Structure formats: structure tokens, C-alpha cells
Amino acid sequence: MSINLKKLLTRSKAGQNANRSRGGTAVIVLIMSVFGLFSLLPMVLSVNQAFKPLNEIFIYPPKLFVRNPTMNNFKILFGLMDSTWVPFSRYVLNTILLTLLGTAGNVLVCSAAAYPLAKIRAPGFGAFFKLITFSLMFSAVVGDVINYMTVSALGWLNSYASLLVPSFATSLGLFLMRQFMVQLPDALLEAAKIDGASEYRIFFRIVMPQVKPAWLTLAIFSFQGLWTVGNTPYIYKEQLKTLGYAFSQVSAGGIMRIGAGAAASLIMMIVPIAFFVLSQSQIMQTMAASGMKD
Description:
Elements (H helix, E strand, L loop, with lengths): L2 H7 L12 H29 L3 H4 L14 H11 L5 H32 L5 H11 L8 H10 L7 H8 L2 H12 L3 H9 L4 H12 L1 H16 L15 H9 L6 H31 L6
Helix pairs in contact: 2-14, 4-14, 5-8, 5-9, 5-12, 6-9, 10-11, 12-14, 13-14
């Protein structure tokens, strides 16, 4: 790797400090703190609901905080899961495989497709990207019928492929990755080509590290969407269904299972939140060290 390319890769990214008074900073922090507290309310409510006994869940007017916390909701939930003829661990394994493989595939496929759209000028690429942008206007429900017909024609019904393969390519992921890659300086890629780097090496060793905030953001969205997948028209075998489906059956059991349903909601919420917190720290660190320009 040449000295020029190393200089481009190690160029300082630190932004200049904003010219803001201490009073202005304090006001901004106060406003953001208020909005942050409001955004925490649904999470606080979910946590308290999971530990409320039935008499507190049905109390009116409803109370935000639990008075007599109990673990009965979780005991009932796992007791119901132990009584299913498919082991609870099978639902967990299905969900973990779907979430991890689907997230990794989505990031890789969308990034690989976005790179030529962003950095290779070819006839038709502009019109193709406009179609992708136009598709963002439609809900995913619009394509349910044609997606089912496609999956059925390929023979993927009752298989992991029916959920995994469609999750690899998303319009939002492609749009997000392309918009970030367009901002990369062409001089950086040209310097790498002069050094003899192949397109694959440029993509994995230069482009992907530079757009880390984008693919981490995409990973967060993909992880959250796949982790909460419930009942789908593509899967009929109970052995292939997900944790979201199993927990939804608990919530559908009537008012006596509302507490167990609240406990299930909390469990389903914890994992995406933990993934978001860990990824967010990486995104902020990467953004603080990004900003390469020509």
C-alpha cells in the first residue's frame, strides 16, 4: 500500500468544536433530557407490567410503577413453554439462526449491491436506483402475495430459506448503504487501484470500514425486525417456528395470561435493546472518526 493511500486512510477526522456558549449547551442538554425521559416511558411501562400481579394489571386508573413485584408471570410463561410438544429451546434456536444469518446476509448483500451503484458509472444504474427509492414508498404488505407465490414456486415453503433469503435484500438497506458510499472520496479508491488492489479488496478493506456507521445502523434495523418475527404464511411446521410465534400463542390464551404475555414482551424486547446499545456505542465512535472528503 502506497504512502499516499496510507495518508488518505489515516487522515484526521476530528470535527471542529462548535462555537456555543455554556448556557446554550445547558439548554440543549435539558431539552434532549426531557425528550429522552419521554422515550423511556414505554420501556419503563413494559418492565413494570412484566412484574405486576394480575390485580395490579387490571387496576383502574392504571399505575406506571409496580407496587408488589412478583415473578409469577415469568413462572407461568416458562411453565407454558415447557408444556409444548416442541421444546422451548427449539424456538430459541430457530430465532437465533434466523436473526444472525439474516442480519449478516442483509448487511453483506445490500453493501455489495450498493457499491457499484455508488462508485461505478454504468448505463441504467441511475434509473435502477430511482426504482429502489420509489419502492420505499410502499409497505412490505403490498408484496406479500407475490412473495408467497415466488417462495412456493421455488419450493422453499416450510424451510429456513423462505425467511432467510427474502431478508437478505431490502430497499431500505440498499438505499442507506448507497447514500453513505457515494460520500467516499474517489481519490481513495483510485489510489488503491493504482497500488494493485482488486475490487474485492477495495470493498472489504477500504469501503466497508469507512461506512461502518451505515452497516451497523442497517444491522440494528435488520436484527430488530428478524428477532420479532412471529407467525408467517411460509412456515407450517411447528419445529421451524420462531420464539415470537411461541410467545404470541401465550398472549392469545385469554385475560388470565396477560401477565405471562407481558413477561414474554419484556424478554423479546431485552435482546434487541442490548444489541442496539452495543452497536450504538460503535456507531458513535466510528462517526467521531469519520468524515473523509476529497
